[in-house]
UniProtKB/TrEMBL annotation:
<dbReference type="Pfam" id="PF16845">
    <property type="entry name" value="SQAPI"/>
</dbReference>
<comment type="similarity">
    <text>Belongs to the cystatin family. Phytocystatin subfamily.</text>
</comment>
<keyword id="KW-0789">Thiol protease inhibitor</keyword>
<dbReference type="GO" id="GO:0004869">
    <property type="term" value="F:cysteine-type endopeptidase inhibitor activity"/>
</dbReference>
<keyword id="KW-0646">Protease inhibitor</keyword>
<keyword id="KW-0732">Signal</keyword>
<dbReference type="InterPro" id="IPR000010">
    <property type="entry name" value="Cystatin_dom"/>
</dbReference>
<feature type="domain" description="Cystatin">
    <location>
        <begin position="34"/>
        <end position="107"/>
    </location>
</feature>
<dbReference type="InterPro" id="IPR046350">
    <property type="entry name" value="Cystatin_sf"/>
</dbReference>
<dbReference type="InterPro" id="IPR027214">
    <property type="entry name" value="Cystatin"/>
</dbReference>
<protein>
    <recommendedName>
        <fullName>Cystatin domain-containing protein</fullName>
    </recommendedName>
</protein>
<feature type="signal peptide">
    <location>
        <begin position="1"/>
        <end position="27"/>
    </location>
</feature>
Length: 124
């Protein structure tokens, strides 16, 4: 026969163990120090290319204005970038606008593993 105190003691032990487990640290956004870094530029180019293909927009990557990175939960890196992209006009002129984009990926991995999460024009 089991002791009636065994279950409450076991439950109390589980609560104590759970309370002492380390808390999952929240990832923090870190500013991109060099917007001309090869990886940062490639992420910006990827965002413009994928958006243009998916929405049939004729955009040309012009550069990364600013950005932040964050270690993603479960692996990989989140890139929150403001990119400049040029759009050709009908009269031969081009207009450049800034876009806020969010990209997830693993540097050094295949291109088909990357994801464009957000791409929207910043209204000026």
């Amino acid at each position: 026969m089991r002791s009636p105190l065994l279950f409450p003691l076991g439950a109390a032990l589980l609560v104590v163990v759970a309370a002492t487990l380390p808390v999952a640290s929240r990832a923090e956004w870190v500013p991109v120090l060099d917007v001309n870094d090869l990886v940062i530029r490639q992420v910006g180019q990827f965002a413009v290319l994928v958006y243009g293909l998916a929405h049939r927009k004729d955009l040309a990557f012009a550069g990364v204005v600013r950005g932040q990175t964050e270690n993603a939960v479960g692996g990989g890196t989140n890139y929150r970038l403001v990119v400049a992209a040029a759009k050709p006009g009908g009269d031969g002129s081009t207009t450049t606008a800034e876009y806020d984009c969010l990209v997830w990926g693993v540097p050094g991995s295949r291109a088909d593993t990357w994801k464009l999460r957000r791409f929207r024009k910043i209204q000026s």
